[in-house]
Amino acid sequence: MKIQKISSYALYACFALIAVVFAVFYLVGYDNPVGEYNAPQMTELLLILMYALVVVNIVLMVWSLIKSVLAGSGVDDAKTGVPGTKVAWAAMICLVGSLVLGAVLGSSGPVTTVDGTVTEGAMSLLSDVMIISIYILLVVAAVGVVVNLTGIAKK
Question: How many domains does the chain have?
Answer without folding.
Answer: 2
